[in-house]
Amino acid sequence: MRIRTAGVVALFALALAASGCGGDSDEPAAKETPKAAGGKLVIWADDKRTAALKPFAEKFGQENGVTVDVQAVSKDLQTNFVTASQQGSGPDVVVGAHDWIGNLVQNGAIDPVQLAAEQKSGFNETAIKAVTFNGQLYGVPYAQENLALIRNTELAPEAPKTIEDLVASGKQLKAAKKVTETLCLQVGQNGDAYHIYPLYSSAGGYLFGTGANGDYDPKDLGVGKPESIEAFKKIGALGEKGEGVLKRSIADTNSIATFTGKKCAYLVSGPWAVADVKKANITYDISAVPGFAGGKEAQPFVGVQAFYVAAKGKNKALAQEFVANYTTTPELAVALYQAEPRPPALTAALDQVKGSDPDLAKFQEAGKNGQVLPAIPAMAAIWDPFGKAEAAVIGGADPTSTITAAGKTISGQIK
Amino acid sequence: MSTPLSGPGSVTQTPGREPAGSPPSRSRPSRSRVTRDDAPITLTGLAGKVLLLGLTAGVAVWAAFPLIAAGMWVGLALLAASTAGLFYLYLTRRHIPAKYLVPGTLFLIAFQVFPVFHTASTAFTNFGDGHRGSKDDAIVAIQSSSVTQVPGSAEYALSIATKGDPVTGPLVFLVTDPGTGAVSVGDTGGLRQLDAADVTVATGGKVTAADGYTVLNFGQASSRSREITDLVVPTAGGALRSSGLSRAYEGKAVRAYEAGCDCVRDTGTGQTWTADEQAGAFVAADGERLAQGWKVNVGLSNFTRVLTDENISGPFLGTLIWNFAFAIGSTGGTFLLGMLIALALHSPRMRGTNLYRVLLVLPYAMPSFAMLLAWRDMFNADFGLINSLFGLDVDWFGQAWTARFAVILVQLWLGYPYMFLVATGALQAIPRELTEATSVDGASPWQSFRAVTLPLLLVALSPLLISSFAFNFNNFNAIYLTTEGAPFPADNPTNGATDLLITYTYRLAFGGQGAQFGFAAAISLFIFAIVAVVSAVSFRRTRQQEEVYA
């Protein structure tokens, strides 16, 4: 069988291309029709929140005759968002932590949100403060979180008032072979600035001073100052060469599991740990992270999860409508709480769920004196050097030279 | 592999067979073209051709739309030219060699050459966080993020309306003053009050209907989103802007760009920030920078920074040395172990070889990603399996040398089955007659191994060893998933004892300190150059070796 290949192939390919063409040109045309009736709102969030957001986003879409597409970005949401928005393929709304704001603003990725005074007053004050950057409100907060001390009440019935109390009781338990670790506070090989901060602040250390308007001042860096060295001397004394309370072998991967495995009586963690603790059937209680005896109060960081309007979104007006006028309703905050139990930032929503979940009130109480996690871009320079210096000091390095060097590295990175 | 690979039955190799890996003979029969031309066209061949070319056309069409949308005409022209070229190539009967070479070449350009050029061009810029877009983008971002509500001004209920067609007609704002309840219509010309009799206002103040205007519903309005956000209605104190589709506020852009002085001026405080084209940022007289910068060409400064900044160049050399040690150690270690096991199993006296083979391939069959995480946990100083199993108290990842030893050990475990497999294959290709002949001549097994087996093995395996070296030189997962580069010296958080150049670069580009793509690209080019030189030298030497033994 001989066929004129060239001709036949060309014909087939053309037909295919034409059908491909037709398909492609048909699609936008088909999309055009609903588009005339309603735009499309694209929301990016992480996996857990996506599930909670979907029904509400759909409801918003149905009520207003628009399509809402909630897309899960499971990894590196912030980086992906910045890159995508630079290329013009980003979403209209993104959900994320408030300490992203500095970076998102310097990359021109988000726009300020205008809330009416009565809308603002519905929120917890700390939450509003967290999403305010350079005097502008950059997002609508919906949940708030901070560290607390979760303890196994079977092993430790009393909440310790100071770190010294905690160490003493932990040591007793250890001597009685009831536990193998005094405290489960995640450090890891490379340190963890977020989890050590309550102790650091209690011992007098600070990260950034605040300017006249109450904003963090990147020029006033506390790391490397005498206060920070003193703080790390105290932290180092709890480290591997000292009391052995803080250890690099306890990391983000095993701290909660060690606690639920009843190898330690105390865990420093956030609301996200509670689900695991409950699953392990441990009787627990939540109290504030204790400070050093005679020191300042231990201040955990308060972080806020928020909705942002993408500056380069295709449907900004609708995005602003959704963020400023729809996410401020308590129903959504309650649904998001049910998807992941973090205390809602809306006072009305918190009151609604507080009754059925006493842990929320305890976490809030523990974070009452917390410090808003700085959102300035300079904060990005802190995490890595600070954490590594912490790990080194806990491993037995000299606090003075380590922290001085970390301070130098950090200030060198702040432009 | 249905027949046993070793044992008495396997000595069936034809003597004088070319060792694996040697180049195929170059002289091709010159009549091939004639036979091709006369070759009958089979239905499967035709169907395959139609399918593949159809797919090519489909991909081209699919890729064309975004290019057209973005107005990238050069890219579109390239796409059209390459598609047309492909069609031409496979629809004619000529250019047989090109039919084989072109697809590979296209992929090579798309996935190798283009990224290298892209990296190279990035290395000369300050591309990174705060310097991602153009200057215009930065100006827009600065102005729009400085819009604040005029103090004491009211919040208006807003409806979007038009006098004409909902899809194309010019838009106006219908706003209700919360104090007086008066309804006004606003456009770029300003606000005009409407007669209360002509409008219907819902509770909450939103206008639902107005004489002479079509009020747009959310769906209609949102499809004209950009026009709505761009519509600014001037007022005495600032301008009315939309906040979503149902509220408007009186706002004012506090910072504005002035082309005359090429600067940004704050209308509130009068402060100015002048554009600095070297730094790609607006800088005030006191050195304060506005956060939103833009991408500029910085020349060679990224490269000179690697060489001159002593915080980078000092550790860079140490990292480079460790990087070589790691690549050589993991390649050499896995090769040695794999080869020894292959030799042991190759021995005719060995029994149960198939079982051993299955067991040996197991680690290779596991996903290395998960295995690396498992090993990381096993090396945990307090809870890890290794310390508790051997009763040790070693702070594995806390000390430089134990950490280095640990990562190489993990690599050895992960990599030796591969080397074992290829060494087994190569051993089969070495005729047993050769070793038998040496033993007849009175050589010890060691001598025959050194003089015959090893050189022949190396000829076959050298290309694999070189590529394995290149892979391990940039083995990001091996380090990042186990130690993340730890331990770090107490006074230097940027270079860890187990950091490879690639993990170090990754931390610079995407790490905690914010992305510095330009600088990371410069380091990538250094890595590229190093790997390229090492590979080129090794391949040269291999070729010489082949000439000796072939």
Automatic annotation (TrEMBL), chain A:
GO process annotations (BP): maltodextrin transmembrane transport; maltose transport
UniProt-listed Pfam families: SBP_bac_8
Keywords: Signal, Sugar transport, Transport
Keyword Transmembrane: no
Domain of life: Bacteria
Gene Ontology molecular functions: carbohydrate transmembrane transporter activity; maltose binding
SUPFAM superfamilies from the UniProt entry: Periplasmic binding protein-like II
Record's keyword annotation contains Iron: no
Any one annotated GO CC term: ATP-binding cassette (ABC) transporter complex, substrate-binding subunit-containing
Signal peptide: 1-20
InterPro entries: Maltose/Cyclodextrin-bd, SBP
Homology family: Belongs to the bacterial solute-binding protein 1 family.
Name listed for the protein in its UniProt record: Arabinogalactan oligomer/maltooligosaccharide transport system substrate-binding protein
From TrEMBL, chain B:
Key words of the record: Cell membrane, Membrane, Sugar transport, Transmembrane, Transmembrane helix, Transport
Residues in the signal sequence: none
Pfam families, sorted: BPD_transp_1, TM_PBP2_N
Residue ranges of the TM segments: 41-65, 71-91, 98-117, 320-343, 355-375, 405-430, 451-471, 517-539
Domain ABC transmembrane type-1: residue ranges: 320-538
A Gene Ontology cellular-component term: maltose transport complex
GO process annotations (BP): maltodextrin transmembrane transport
Compositionally biased residues, Low complexity: 15-27
Taxonomy, superkingdom: Bacteria
Gene3D superfamilies: MalF N-terminal region-like (3.10.650.10), MetI-like (1.10.3720.10)
Primary residence: membrane
Entry-linked PROSITE patterns: ABC_TM1
Compartments, record wording: Cell membrane
Molecular function as annotated in GO: ABC-type maltose transporter activity
Residue spans of biased composition, Polar residues class: 1-14
InterPro entries attached to this UniProt entry: MalF_N, MetI-like, MetI-like_sf, TM_PBP2_N
Similarity remark: Belongs to the binding-protein-dependent transport system permease family. MalFG subfamily.
Known role: Part of the ABC transporter complex MalEFGK involved in maltose/maltodextrin import. Probably responsible for the translocation of the substrate across the membrane.
Protein name listed in UniProt: Maltose/maltodextrin transport system permease protein
